[in-house]
Amino acid sequence: MHEFELINRLKPLLPANDFVVHGAGDDCAVLDLGDPTAHTLFKTDAVVEGVHFTPDADPEQVGHKAIARCLSDIAAMGGRATAAVVTLALPPGRDAAWSEGVYRGLCRTAALHQVAIVGGETTTNPGQALISVALLGRVARNQAILRSGARVGDAILVSGELGGSIAGRHLNFEPRCDQGGWLATTGLVHALIDLSDGLAGDLRHLLAASGGLGAEIHSTALPISRIARLRAREGDLAKPALLAALTDGEDFELLFTVAASDAVRIMDGWRERFPTTRISCIGRVTPGPNVQLRDKTGIRQMPPAGYEHFRGES
Amino acid sequence: MHEFELINRLKPLLPANDFVVHGAGDDCAVLDLGDPTAHTLFKTDAVVEGVHFTPDADPEQVGHKAIARCLSDIAAMGGRATAAVVTLALPPGRDAAWSEGVYRGLCRTAALHQVAIVGGETTTNPGQALISVALLGRVARNQAILRSGARVGDAILVSGELGGSIAGRHLNFEPRCDQGGWLATTGLVHALIDLSDGLAGDLRHLLAASGGLGAEIHSTALPISRIARLRAREGDLAKPALLAALTDGEDFELLFTVAASDAVRIMDGWRERFPTTRISCIGRVTPGPNVQLRDKTGIRQMPPAGYEHFRGES
User: Fold this and answer.
1) Nearest to B45 among A3, A7, A121 (CB)
2) Within 13 Å of residue A64, how many CA atoms lie on the same side as its CB?
3) Does ipTM exceed 0.85?
Protein backbone atom coordinates (compact mmCIF):
# COMPACT_ATOMS: atom_id res chain seq x y z
CA MET A 1 0.00 0.00 0.00
CA HIS A 2 1.23 3.47 -0.84
CA GLU A 3 2.31 5.63 2.11
CA PHE A 4 -0.38 8.25 1.56
CA GLU A 5 -3.10 5.62 1.30
CA LEU A 6 -1.99 4.01 4.56
CA ILE A 7 -1.80 7.37 6.36
CA ASN A 8 -5.25 8.33 5.09
CA ARG A 9 -6.71 5.05 6.33
CA LEU A 10 -5.06 5.42 9.72
CA LYS A 11 -5.65 9.13 10.31
CA PRO A 12 -9.15 8.75 11.74
CA LEU A 13 -7.75 6.30 14.34
CA LEU A 14 -5.21 8.72 15.80
CA PRO A 15 -6.12 10.00 19.27
CA ALA A 16 -6.00 13.78 19.85
CA ASN A 17 -6.05 15.99 22.93
CA ASP A 18 -6.08 19.67 23.90
CA PHE A 19 -2.38 20.10 23.08
CA VAL A 20 -3.02 19.50 19.35
CA VAL A 21 -3.49 22.54 17.09
CA HIS A 22 -2.89 20.62 13.81
CA GLY A 23 -2.35 16.85 13.91
CA ALA A 24 -0.95 14.49 11.28
CA GLY A 25 -1.13 15.41 7.61
CA ASP A 26 1.08 18.48 7.14
CA ASP A 27 4.90 18.73 7.08
CA CYS A 28 4.85 18.88 10.91
CA ALA A 29 2.29 18.69 13.68
CA VAL A 30 1.50 21.97 15.47
CA LEU A 31 1.12 21.79 19.28
CA ASP A 32 0.19 24.29 21.96
CA LEU A 33 2.44 23.36 24.89
CA GLY A 34 1.66 26.41 26.99
CA ASP A 35 4.10 29.02 25.66
CA PRO A 36 1.97 32.18 25.50
CA THR A 37 3.86 33.42 22.42
CA ALA A 38 4.67 30.31 20.38
CA HIS A 39 3.43 27.00 19.07
CA THR A 40 5.62 23.89 18.98
CA LEU A 41 6.26 21.96 15.75
CA PHE A 42 6.92 18.19 15.92
CA LYS A 43 8.22 15.91 13.18
CA THR A 44 9.90 12.53 12.76
CA ASP A 45 11.65 11.05 9.75
CA ALA A 46 13.99 8.13 9.06
CA VAL A 47 16.68 7.37 6.48
CA VAL A 48 17.49 3.76 5.62
CA GLU A 49 20.67 2.33 4.10
CA GLY A 50 20.00 1.05 0.58
CA VAL A 51 16.89 3.22 0.33
CA HIS A 52 17.96 6.79 1.20
CA PHE A 53 21.72 6.32 1.03
CA THR A 54 24.13 3.69 -0.30
CA PRO A 55 26.44 1.65 1.95
CA ASP A 56 29.47 3.53 0.59
CA ALA A 57 28.05 7.00 1.33
CA ASP A 58 30.13 9.26 3.57
CA PRO A 59 28.67 8.70 7.09
CA GLU A 60 28.92 12.42 7.87
CA GLN A 61 26.73 13.16 4.84
CA VAL A 62 24.32 10.42 5.98
CA GLY A 63 24.06 12.15 9.38
CA HIS A 64 23.56 15.49 7.67
CA LYS A 65 20.79 14.09 5.48
CA ALA A 66 19.03 12.42 8.42
CA ILE A 67 18.55 15.71 10.28
CA ALA A 68 18.37 18.05 7.26
CA ARG A 69 15.23 16.26 6.02
CA CYS A 70 13.51 17.11 9.32
CA LEU A 71 14.91 20.66 9.27
CA SER A 72 13.32 21.08 5.85
CA ASP A 73 9.95 20.04 7.30
CA ILE A 74 10.23 22.60 10.12
CA ALA A 75 11.13 25.26 7.51
CA ALA A 76 8.08 24.16 5.49
CA MET A 77 5.86 25.27 8.39
CA GLY A 78 7.63 28.62 8.70
CA GLY A 79 9.28 27.55 11.98
CA ARG A 80 12.71 27.39 13.59
CA ALA A 81 14.06 24.04 14.81
CA THR A 82 14.96 23.80 18.51
CA ALA A 83 15.82 20.25 19.67
CA ALA A 84 16.26 16.77 18.22
CA VAL A 85 16.48 13.18 19.45
CA VAL A 86 18.09 10.45 17.36
CA THR A 87 17.76 6.68 17.11
CA LEU A 88 20.61 4.90 15.39
CA ALA A 89 19.62 1.33 14.44
CA LEU A 90 22.70 -0.59 13.33
CA PRO A 91 23.49 -4.03 11.94
CA PRO A 92 25.53 -6.14 14.39
CA GLY A 93 29.24 -5.54 13.81
CA ARG A 94 28.91 -2.10 12.19
CA ASP A 95 32.10 -0.35 13.21
CA ALA A 96 32.07 2.47 15.74
CA ALA A 97 33.82 4.85 13.32
CA TRP A 98 30.76 4.74 11.06
CA SER A 99 28.40 5.66 13.92
CA GLU A 100 30.72 8.43 15.02
CA GLY A 101 30.83 9.76 11.47
CA VAL A 102 27.02 9.82 11.35
CA TYR A 103 26.97 11.69 14.66
CA ARG A 104 29.58 14.18 13.47
CA GLY A 105 27.34 14.96 10.49
CA LEU A 106 24.23 15.18 12.67
CA CYS A 107 25.96 17.46 15.18
CA ARG A 108 27.57 19.77 12.64
CA THR A 109 24.29 20.42 10.84
CA ALA A 110 22.36 20.75 14.12
CA ALA A 111 24.92 23.23 15.47
CA LEU A 112 24.82 25.25 12.23
CA HIS A 113 21.09 25.76 12.76
CA GLN A 114 21.29 26.28 16.55
CA VAL A 115 19.51 22.95 17.19
CA ALA A 116 20.28 20.95 20.35
CA ILE A 117 20.60 17.14 20.16
CA VAL A 118 19.17 15.97 23.47
CA GLY A 119 18.95 12.21 23.15
CA GLY A 120 20.69 9.47 21.22
CA GLU A 121 19.47 5.87 21.43
CA THR A 122 21.10 2.97 19.65
CA THR A 123 19.48 -0.33 18.78
CA THR A 124 20.01 -3.29 16.45
CA ASN A 125 18.65 -3.44 12.89
CA PRO A 126 19.91 -6.56 11.09
CA GLY A 127 20.73 -6.02 7.43
CA GLN A 128 21.15 -2.26 7.18
CA ALA A 129 21.54 0.92 9.20
CA LEU A 130 18.54 3.15 9.85
CA ILE A 131 18.65 6.62 11.41
CA SER A 132 15.46 8.07 12.82
CA VAL A 133 15.37 11.73 13.88
CA ALA A 134 12.56 13.48 15.77
CA LEU A 135 12.73 17.25 15.73
CA LEU A 136 10.95 20.03 17.59
CA GLY A 137 10.51 23.55 16.25
CA ARG A 138 9.04 26.83 17.28
CA VAL A 139 6.79 29.22 15.41
CA ALA A 140 4.94 32.33 16.61
CA ARG A 141 1.38 31.43 17.71
CA ASN A 142 -0.94 30.99 14.73
CA GLN A 143 1.86 31.80 12.25
CA ALA A 144 2.54 28.20 11.18
CA ILE A 145 2.04 28.01 7.40
CA LEU A 146 0.01 24.97 6.40
CA ARG A 147 -0.30 23.22 3.04
CA SER A 148 -3.98 23.92 2.99
CA GLY A 149 -4.22 27.70 2.51
CA ALA A 150 -3.77 28.08 -1.26
CA ARG A 151 -6.40 30.21 -3.04
CA VAL A 152 -7.47 30.43 -6.67
CA GLY A 153 -5.35 33.04 -8.44
CA ASP A 154 -2.35 32.67 -6.10
CA ALA A 155 1.10 32.84 -7.61
CA ILE A 156 3.14 29.63 -7.14
CA LEU A 157 6.79 30.14 -6.17
CA VAL A 158 9.66 27.72 -5.65
CA SER A 159 13.13 28.11 -4.17
CA GLY A 160 16.39 26.85 -5.63
CA GLU A 161 16.71 24.52 -8.63
CA LEU A 162 14.96 21.25 -9.33
CA GLY A 163 15.91 17.76 -10.47
CA GLY A 164 18.89 15.44 -10.42
CA SER A 165 19.30 15.42 -6.63
CA ILE A 166 20.16 11.71 -6.80
CA ALA A 167 23.54 12.62 -8.37
CA GLY A 168 24.70 13.85 -4.96
CA ARG A 169 22.70 16.81 -3.74
CA HIS A 170 20.31 14.53 -1.77
CA LEU A 171 23.24 13.94 0.64
CA ASN A 172 24.44 17.53 1.05
CA PHE A 173 21.44 19.79 0.33
CA GLU A 174 20.99 22.89 2.44
CA PRO A 175 17.59 22.93 4.15
CA ARG A 176 15.86 26.29 3.65
CA CYS A 177 15.64 27.09 7.37
CA ASP A 178 16.26 30.84 7.19
CA GLN A 179 14.00 31.20 4.20
CA GLY A 180 11.11 29.30 5.84
CA GLY A 181 11.43 31.35 9.01
CA TRP A 182 11.44 34.58 7.02
CA LEU A 183 8.40 33.56 4.93
CA ALA A 184 6.35 33.15 8.14
CA THR A 185 7.29 36.63 9.34
CA THR A 186 5.97 38.23 6.12
CA GLY A 187 2.44 37.03 6.92
CA LEU A 188 1.84 36.86 3.16
CA VAL A 189 2.27 33.14 2.43
CA HIS A 190 -0.97 31.19 1.96
CA ALA A 191 0.39 27.65 1.65
CA LEU A 192 3.84 26.07 1.98
CA ILE A 193 5.32 22.58 1.50
CA ASP A 194 8.83 21.23 1.03
CA LEU A 195 9.68 19.18 -2.05
CA SER A 196 10.53 15.65 -1.00
CA ASP A 197 8.58 13.61 -3.57
CA GLY A 198 9.13 15.91 -6.56
CA LEU A 199 7.29 19.04 -7.69
CA ALA A 200 4.56 17.16 -9.58
CA GLY A 201 3.64 15.14 -6.50
CA ASP A 202 4.11 17.74 -3.78
CA LEU A 203 2.25 20.45 -5.73
CA ARG A 204 -0.66 18.01 -5.94
CA HIS A 205 -0.47 17.43 -2.17
CA LEU A 206 -0.65 21.18 -1.54
CA LEU A 207 -3.56 21.63 -3.96
CA ALA A 208 -5.45 18.64 -2.56
CA ALA A 209 -4.99 19.93 1.01
CA SER A 210 -6.29 23.32 -0.16
CA GLY A 211 -9.66 21.88 -1.12
CA GLY A 212 -8.94 20.25 -4.48
CA LEU A 213 -7.61 23.23 -6.42
CA GLY A 214 -5.65 23.03 -9.70
CA ALA A 215 -2.62 24.79 -11.14
CA GLU A 216 -1.07 25.96 -14.37
CA ILE A 217 2.72 25.71 -14.42
CA HIS A 218 4.86 27.43 -17.05
CA SER A 219 7.51 24.99 -18.29
CA THR A 220 9.90 27.76 -19.24
CA ALA A 221 9.75 29.27 -15.74
CA LEU A 222 10.85 26.05 -14.01
CA PRO A 223 14.31 26.38 -12.43
CA ILE A 224 15.85 23.20 -13.86
CA SER A 225 19.13 22.28 -12.19
CA ARG A 226 22.36 22.10 -14.14
CA ILE A 227 22.84 18.47 -13.09
CA ALA A 228 19.39 17.52 -14.42
CA ARG A 229 20.34 19.11 -17.78
CA LEU A 230 23.69 17.31 -17.84
CA ARG A 231 22.14 13.97 -17.00
CA ALA A 232 19.56 14.46 -19.76
CA ARG A 233 22.39 14.41 -22.29
CA GLU A 234 23.69 11.03 -21.18
CA GLY A 235 21.99 9.09 -23.93
CA ASP A 236 18.65 7.86 -25.16
CA LEU A 237 17.76 6.26 -21.83
CA ALA A 238 18.34 9.53 -19.96
CA LYS A 239 15.45 11.34 -18.33
CA PRO A 240 14.55 14.63 -20.05
CA ALA A 241 15.57 17.58 -17.88
CA LEU A 242 12.05 19.00 -17.65
CA LEU A 243 10.69 15.65 -16.52
CA ALA A 244 13.49 15.39 -13.93
CA ALA A 245 12.67 18.85 -12.53
CA LEU A 246 9.02 17.85 -12.21
CA THR A 247 9.34 14.33 -10.84
CA ASP A 248 12.75 13.75 -9.22
CA GLY A 249 12.51 13.40 -5.45
CA GLU A 250 14.55 14.91 -2.63
CA ASP A 251 14.97 18.46 -3.92
CA PHE A 252 14.07 19.78 -0.43
CA GLU A 253 13.20 23.17 -1.85
CA LEU A 254 10.24 25.24 -0.62
CA LEU A 255 7.10 25.46 -2.77
CA PHE A 256 4.58 28.10 -1.71
CA THR A 257 1.74 30.30 -2.83
CA VAL A 258 1.01 33.99 -2.24
CA ALA A 259 -1.63 36.36 -3.60
CA ALA A 260 -0.60 37.33 -7.14
CA SER A 261 -0.46 40.95 -6.00
CA ASP A 262 2.18 40.06 -3.36
CA ALA A 263 4.41 37.93 -5.61
CA VAL A 264 6.78 40.72 -6.66
CA ARG A 265 7.12 42.00 -3.10
CA ILE A 266 7.98 38.50 -1.82
CA MET A 267 10.48 37.86 -4.62
CA ASP A 268 12.17 41.21 -4.07
CA GLY A 269 12.37 40.63 -0.30
CA TRP A 270 13.71 37.12 -0.87
CA ARG A 271 16.43 38.27 -3.30
CA GLU A 272 17.54 40.97 -0.90
CA ARG A 273 17.85 38.54 2.04
CA PHE A 274 18.94 35.38 0.22
CA PRO A 275 20.88 36.55 -2.82
CA THR A 276 22.46 33.13 -3.41
CA THR A 277 19.21 31.14 -3.32
CA ARG A 278 17.17 31.38 -6.48
CA ILE A 279 13.45 32.14 -6.26
CA SER A 280 11.11 31.53 -9.20
CA CYS A 281 7.46 32.23 -9.91
CA ILE A 282 6.41 29.15 -11.87
CA GLY A 283 2.66 29.47 -12.31
CA ARG A 284 -0.68 30.09 -10.67
CA VAL A 285 -3.42 28.31 -8.75
CA THR A 286 -6.59 27.55 -10.76
CA PRO A 287 -10.04 26.36 -9.70
CA GLY A 288 -8.86 22.84 -10.46
CA PRO A 289 -8.72 19.99 -10.17
CA ASN A 290 -6.43 19.84 -13.26
CA VAL A 291 -2.70 20.38 -12.83
CA GLN A 292 -1.41 21.55 -16.18
CA LEU A 293 1.84 22.41 -17.85
CA ARG A 294 1.91 25.31 -20.31
CA ASP A 295 4.57 26.01 -22.91
CA LYS A 296 4.72 27.64 -26.31
CA THR A 297 3.12 24.58 -27.93
CA GLY A 298 0.06 24.65 -25.67
CA ILE A 299 -1.23 23.00 -22.50
CA ARG A 300 -0.55 19.44 -21.31
CA GLN A 301 -1.37 17.48 -18.19
CA MET A 302 1.37 17.51 -15.54
CA PRO A 303 3.12 14.10 -15.56
CA PRO A 304 2.21 11.88 -12.65
CA ALA A 305 4.35 11.95 -9.52
CA GLY A 306 6.86 9.16 -9.17
CA TYR A 307 6.90 8.62 -12.95
CA GLU A 308 10.64 8.02 -12.71
CA HIS A 309 10.10 4.76 -10.83
CA PHE A 310 8.40 3.24 -13.86
CA ARG A 311 11.56 3.89 -15.84
CA GLY A 312 13.53 1.93 -13.30
CA GLU A 313 15.50 4.89 -12.00
CA SER A 314 16.20 5.36 -8.34
CA MET B 1 30.60 -1.32 21.00
CA HIS B 2 28.11 -1.36 23.84
CA GLU B 3 25.31 1.24 23.68
CA PHE B 4 26.40 3.04 26.84
CA GLU B 5 30.01 3.25 25.69
CA LEU B 6 28.96 4.74 22.35
CA ILE B 7 26.64 7.25 24.00
CA ASN B 8 29.34 8.30 26.44
CA ARG B 9 31.81 8.83 23.61
CA LEU B 10 29.31 10.85 21.60
CA LYS B 11 27.79 12.93 24.41
CA PRO B 12 30.45 15.67 24.35
CA LEU B 13 29.76 16.18 20.61
CA LEU B 14 26.07 16.96 21.04
CA PRO B 15 25.19 20.63 20.48
CA ALA B 16 23.06 22.38 23.13
CA ASN B 17 21.15 25.64 23.27
CA ASP B 18 19.08 27.74 25.69
CA PHE B 19 16.07 25.41 25.40
CA VAL B 20 17.96 22.54 27.09
CA VAL B 21 17.52 22.06 30.85
CA HIS B 22 18.91 18.48 30.90
CA GLY B 23 20.27 16.95 27.68
CA ALA B 24 21.05 13.33 26.79
CA GLY B 25 21.81 10.81 29.56
CA ASP B 26 18.62 10.46 31.60
CA ASP B 27 15.39 8.62 30.74
CA CYS B 28 14.24 11.74 28.84
CA ALA B 29 15.64 15.15 27.94
CA VAL B 30 14.15 18.12 29.82
CA LEU B 31 13.45 21.27 27.77
CA ASP B 32 12.22 24.75 28.60
CA LEU B 33 9.98 25.65 25.64
CA GLY B 34 8.51 28.78 27.20
CA ASP B 35 5.61 27.43 29.28
CA PRO B 36 5.84 29.49 32.49
CA THR B 37 4.58 26.54 34.58
CA ALA B 38 6.04 23.42 32.95
CA HIS B 39 9.06 21.81 31.36
CA THR B 40 8.82 19.57 28.30
CA LEU B 41 10.16 15.99 28.29
CA PHE B 42 11.42 14.48 25.01
CA LYS B 43 12.26 10.84 24.27
CA THR B 44 12.66 8.49 21.33
CA ASP B 45 12.81 4.72 21.24
CA ALA B 46 12.51 1.98 18.61
CA VAL B 47 11.43 -1.66 18.60
CA VAL B 48 12.78 -4.02 15.96
CA GLU B 49 11.31 -7.30 14.71
CA GLY B 50 13.50 -10.23 15.75
CA VAL B 51 15.07 -8.12 18.53
CA HIS B 52 12.19 -6.69 20.59
CA PHE B 53 9.36 -8.84 19.22
CA THR B 54 9.07 -12.00 17.13
CA PRO B 55 7.52 -12.07 13.65
CA ASP B 56 4.51 -13.99 14.99
CA ALA B 57 3.75 -11.46 17.78
CA ASP B 58 0.29 -9.90 17.76
CA PRO B 59 0.75 -6.58 15.88
CA GLU B 60 -1.51 -4.77 18.36
CA GLN B 61 0.80 -5.84 21.18
CA VAL B 62 3.79 -4.71 19.11
CA GLY B 63 2.19 -1.27 18.74
CA HIS B 64 1.45 -1.22 22.46
CA LYS B 65 5.04 -2.10 23.32
CA ALA B 66 6.46 0.53 20.92
CA ILE B 67 4.71 3.39 22.68
CA ALA B 68 4.58 1.92 26.21
CA ARG B 69 8.41 1.83 26.36
CA CYS B 70 8.45 5.61 25.77
CA LEU B 71 5.56 6.14 28.22
CA SER B 72 7.65 4.34 30.84
CA ASP B 73 10.53 6.79 30.21
CA ILE B 74 8.22 9.80 30.68
CA ALA B 75 6.94 8.22 33.92
CA ALA B 76 10.56 7.71 35.00
CA MET B 77 11.00 11.52 34.98
CA GLY B 78 7.80 12.08 36.98
CA GLY B 79 6.03 13.49 33.90
CA ARG B 80 2.83 13.03 31.92
CA ALA B 81 2.99 12.17 28.22
CA THR B 82 1.30 14.58 25.79
CA ALA B 83 2.00 13.83 22.09
CA ALA B 84 3.76 11.23 19.96
CA VAL B 85 4.99 10.84 16.39
CA VAL B 86 5.61 7.41 14.86
CA THR B 87 7.81 6.05 12.09
CA LEU B 88 6.83 2.64 10.75
CA ALA B 89 9.68 1.10 8.71
CA LEU B 90 8.40 -1.97 6.88
CA PRO B 91 9.85 -4.69 4.66
CA PRO B 92 8.49 -4.49 1.09
CA GLY B 93 5.32 -6.56 0.81
CA ARG B 94 4.37 -6.46 4.50
CA ASP B 95 0.59 -6.59 4.43
CA ALA B 96 -1.50 -3.57 5.34
CA ALA B 97 -3.40 -5.51 8.01
CA TRP B 98 -0.17 -5.85 10.00
CA SER B 99 0.49 -2.08 9.91
CA GLU B 100 -3.10 -1.37 10.85
CA GLY B 101 -2.81 -3.78 13.78
CA VAL B 102 0.32 -1.99 14.99
CA TYR B 103 -1.51 1.34 14.72
CA ARG B 104 -4.53 0.00 16.59
CA GLY B 105 -2.22 -1.00 19.45
CA LEU B 106 -0.40 2.34 19.36
CA CYS B 107 -3.66 4.29 19.33
CA ARG B 108 -5.37 2.29 22.06
CA THR B 109 -2.48 2.69 24.48
CA ALA B 110 -2.01 6.37 23.56
CA ALA B 111 -5.72 7.06 24.09
CA LEU B 112 -5.69 5.25 27.44
CA HIS B 113 -3.02 7.69 28.64
CA GLN B 114 -4.54 10.79 26.97
CA VAL B 115 -1.63 11.00 24.50
CA ALA B 116 -2.20 12.43 21.01
CA ILE B 117 -0.55 10.78 17.98
CA VAL B 118 0.25 13.70 15.69
CA GLY B 119 2.38 12.21 12.94
CA GLY B 120 2.85 8.85 11.28
CA GLU B 121 5.54 8.35 8.65
CA THR B 122 6.15 5.12 6.82
CA THR B 123 9.34 4.03 5.09
CA THR B 124 11.04 0.86 3.83
CA ASN B 125 13.26 -1.35 6.02
CA PRO B 126 14.27 -4.50 4.12
CA GLY B 127 14.39 -7.64 6.28
CA GLN B 128 12.27 -6.70 9.27
CA ALA B 129 9.80 -4.16 10.61
CA LEU B 130 10.99 -1.37 12.91
CA ILE B 131 8.74 1.03 14.80
CA SER B 132 10.25 4.25 16.13
CA VAL B 133 8.23 6.42 18.51
CA ALA B 134 9.14 9.92 19.70
CA LEU B 135 7.16 11.13 22.69
CA LEU B 136 6.72 14.48 24.44
CA GLY B 137 5.75 14.86 28.07
CA ARG B 138 5.04 17.58 30.57
CA VAL B 139 6.27 18.04 34.12
CA ALA B 140 5.92 21.00 36.48
CA ARG B 141 8.95 23.31 36.21
CA ASN B 142 11.94 21.93 38.12
CA GLN B 143 9.96 18.86 39.27
CA ALA B 144 11.48 16.40 36.78
CA ILE B 145 13.08 13.57 38.78
CA LEU B 146 16.53 12.69 37.48
CA ARG B 147 18.61 9.54 37.98
CA SER B 148 21.32 11.57 39.62
CA GLY B 149 19.80 12.63 42.95
CA ALA B 150 20.32 9.54 45.15
CA ARG B 151 21.96 10.17 48.54
CA VAL B 152 23.79 7.89 50.97
CA GLY B 153 21.28 6.38 53.38
CA ASP B 154 18.32 6.62 50.96
CA ALA B 155 15.81 3.79 50.92
CA ILE B 156 15.57 2.02 47.53
CA LEU B 157 12.04 1.20 46.36
CA VAL B 158 10.73 -0.67 43.34
CA SER B 159 7.25 -1.05 41.85
CA GLY B 160 5.60 -4.27 40.70
CA GLU B 161 7.33 -7.63 40.35
CA LEU B 162 10.58 -8.49 38.60
CA GLY B 163 11.85 -11.12 36.18
CA GLY B 164 10.51 -13.36 33.43
CA SER B 165 9.10 -10.55 31.26
CA ILE B 166 10.26 -12.42 28.14
CA ALA B 167 7.50 -14.99 28.75
CA GLY B 168 4.96 -12.43 27.56
CA ARG B 169 4.79 -9.41 29.83
CA HIS B 170 7.30 -7.48 27.66
CA LEU B 171 4.50 -7.21 25.07
CA ASN B 172 1.65 -6.19 27.35
CA PHE B 173 3.19 -4.50 30.41
CA GLU B 174 1.45 -1.51 31.87
CA PRO B 175 3.73 1.55 31.99
CA ARG B 176 3.66 3.19 35.45
CA CYS B 177 2.36 6.54 34.15
CA ASP B 178 0.06 7.42 37.06
CA GLN B 179 2.62 6.27 39.61
CA GLY B 180 5.45 8.33 38.06
CA GLY B 181 3.26 11.42 37.91
CA TRP B 182 2.24 10.97 41.54
CA LEU B 183 5.84 10.45 42.70
CA ALA B 184 6.80 13.86 41.25
CA THR B 185 3.98 15.58 43.12
CA THR B 186 5.22 14.24 46.48
CA GLY B 187 8.47 16.18 46.12
CA LEU B 188 10.13 13.42 48.16
CA VAL B 189 11.81 11.31 45.46
CA HIS B 190 15.57 11.83 45.10
CA ALA B 191 16.28 9.66 42.04
CA LEU B 192 14.11 7.67 39.63
CA ILE B 193 14.74 5.33 36.67
CA ASP B 194 12.66 2.76 34.85
CA LEU B 195 13.85 -0.84 34.60
CA SER B 196 14.57 -1.67 30.99
CA ASP B 197 17.92 -3.50 31.29
CA GLY B 198 17.20 -5.35 34.56
CA LEU B 199 17.52 -4.22 38.17
CA ALA B 200 21.24 -5.04 38.49
CA GLY B 201 22.09 -2.86 35.50
CA ASP B 202 19.65 0.00 35.98
CA LEU B 203 20.41 0.33 39.71
CA ARG B 204 24.07 0.72 38.73
CA HIS B 205 23.10 3.43 36.19
CA LEU B 206 21.23 5.33 38.90
CA LEU B 207 24.10 5.00 41.39
CA ALA B 208 26.72 5.98 38.81
CA ALA B 209 24.68 9.06 37.79
CA SER B 210 24.41 9.97 41.49
CA GLY B 211 28.18 10.34 41.82
CA GLY B 212 29.37 6.74 42.12
CA LEU B 213 27.36 5.59 45.13
CA GLY B 214 26.79 1.97 46.17
CA ALA B 215 23.86 -0.05 47.47
CA GLU B 216 22.94 -2.96 49.66
CA ILE B 217 19.95 -4.94 48.38
CA HIS B 218 18.10 -7.49 50.56
CA SER B 219 17.46 -10.63 48.52
CA THR B 220 14.42 -11.58 50.54
CA ALA B 221 12.80 -8.19 49.93
CA LEU B 222 12.97 -8.48 46.13
CA PRO B 223 9.50 -8.81 44.54
CA ILE B 224 10.20 -11.84 42.33
CA SER B 225 7.47 -12.44 39.75
CA ARG B 226 5.46 -15.66 39.72
CA ILE B 227 6.55 -16.35 36.14
CA ALA B 228 10.24 -16.06 37.10
CA ARG B 229 9.63 -18.62 39.87
CA LEU B 230 7.77 -20.97 37.52
CA ARG B 231 10.46 -20.70 34.85
CA ALA B 232 13.14 -21.46 37.46
CA ARG B 233 11.55 -24.90 37.98
CA GLU B 234 11.83 -25.84 34.30
CA GLY B 235 14.98 -27.90 34.74
CA ASP B 236 18.68 -27.67 35.38
CA LEU B 237 19.23 -25.16 32.57
CA ALA B 238 16.62 -22.78 34.01
CA LYS B 239 17.63 -19.44 35.41
CA PRO B 240 17.26 -19.20 39.19
CA ALA B 241 14.34 -16.91 40.10
CA LEU B 242 16.49 -14.49 42.11
CA LEU B 243 18.93 -14.11 39.21
CA ALA B 244 16.00 -13.53 36.84
CA ALA B 245 14.58 -10.79 39.08
CA LEU B 246 17.98 -9.08 39.16
CA THR B 247 19.04 -9.40 35.54
CA ASP B 248 16.05 -9.99 33.22
CA GLY B 249 15.35 -6.99 31.00
CA GLU B 250 12.11 -5.22 30.09
CA ASP B 251 10.40 -5.17 33.49
CA PHE B 252 9.47 -1.48 32.94
CA GLU B 253 8.94 -1.00 36.66
CA LEU B 254 10.00 2.17 38.52
CA LEU B 255 13.10 2.08 40.72
CA PHE B 256 13.57 5.09 42.99
CA THR B 257 15.15 6.38 46.17
CA VAL B 258 13.77 8.51 49.01
CA ALA B 259 15.18 9.56 52.37
CA ALA B 260 14.88 6.58 54.73
CA SER B 261 12.66 8.71 56.98
CA ASP B 262 10.16 9.19 54.09
CA ALA B 263 10.02 5.56 52.96
CA VAL B 264 7.01 4.55 55.04
CA ARG B 265 5.08 7.68 54.09
CA ILE B 266 5.72 7.04 50.38
CA MET B 267 4.77 3.34 50.64
CA ASP B 268 1.57 4.14 52.53
CA GLY B 269 0.62 6.84 50.01
CA TRP B 270 1.39 4.48 47.10
CA ARG B 271 -0.71 1.63 48.52
CA GLU B 272 -3.64 3.94 49.09
CA ARG B 273 -3.54 5.28 45.51
CA PHE B 274 -2.37 2.16 43.64
CA PRO B 275 -3.67 -0.80 45.64
CA THR B 276 -3.12 -3.25 42.77
CA THR B 277 0.51 -2.28 42.06
CA ARG B 278 2.98 -3.70 44.52
CA ILE B 279 5.61 -1.42 46.09
CA SER B 280 8.68 -2.86 47.85
CA CYS B 281 11.53 -1.38 49.84
CA ILE B 282 14.48 -3.51 48.72
CA GLY B 283 17.55 -1.92 50.31
CA ARG B 284 19.50 1.26 50.87
CA VAL B 285 22.09 3.50 49.22
CA THR B 286 25.65 3.19 50.60
CA PRO B 287 28.79 5.29 50.07
CA GLY B 288 29.76 2.81 47.38
CA PRO B 289 30.94 1.99 44.89
CA ASN B 290 30.02 -1.63 45.75
CA VAL B 291 26.57 -2.91 44.87
CA GLN B 292 25.90 -5.81 47.21
CA LEU B 293 23.28 -8.42 47.84
CA ARG B 294 22.51 -9.36 51.45
CA ASP B 295 20.73 -12.49 52.64
CA LYS B 296 20.78 -14.69 55.74
CA THR B 297 24.06 -16.28 54.60
CA GLY B 298 25.91 -12.96 54.33
CA ILE B 299 26.85 -10.39 51.69
CA ARG B 300 27.71 -11.03 48.01
CA GLN B 301 28.43 -8.84 45.02
CA MET B 302 25.40 -8.07 42.85
CA PRO B 303 25.64 -10.19 39.66
CA PRO B 304 26.64 -8.17 36.61
CA ALA B 305 23.95 -6.70 34.38
CA GLY B 306 23.20 -8.65 31.24
CA TYR B 307 24.53 -11.85 32.84
CA GLU B 308 21.72 -13.74 31.16
CA HIS B 309 23.20 -13.08 27.71
CA PHE B 310 26.25 -15.17 28.60
CA ARG B 311 23.94 -18.09 29.26
CA GLY B 312 22.49 -17.76 25.78
CA GLU B 313 19.07 -16.61 26.95
CA SER B 314 17.21 -13.86 25.19
Assistant:
1) A121
2) 17
3) yes
